[in-house]
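Sample pair:
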Amino acid sequence: RAVLPLLLFWLVAAVVAYVTWPYLWVDPVHRILESFSKLDVYNHRVVFRGHIFSSSELPWIYLPELTSLQLTEPAVILAGVGLPVLAWKSLRRASDPLVVGLLIGWIGAPTYWLIFRGAAIYGGIRHLLFILPPVLILAGAGIEAILDRVHRPWPRRAILSLILIPGLWGIISLQPYEYTYFNSF
């Protein structure tokens, strides 16, 4: 019973990858395998914490630290709140354990590959943007947990405004260089 949603998820993911990645159109199976085999080929110098590293030999903290510095402060805090909330709900069967497992796998598998398998990373988190949707889903779970405890409309609006302001301010103040955003952490 739990296998069907998982298969459906991978089927949808494969279709989306095929439709949005023209490189695959000629020979999807061969080219996706070729892409995975080339993950570790490129080796660049990366400056991190004032030291120069090979892009395939970065410290394990590179990905978590840059992600926590390049998301807005509320996103980082709310994702930290959302992870235990979803884990607790999953244990209590208040949320679907399969969905929580897929979410953790979506974050965990690439993170494992990048941290412990020594995949080459360079240029900040731009090569890692695919892990941001599940991180932001965790942040959404954090927002939901907070807003479930606030019942009056005006405090809810104030909380949502406080969550949005850092991101909006970053977009406005850095335009057209929004990619250079770093939070105050």
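The first helix runs from residue 3 to 20.
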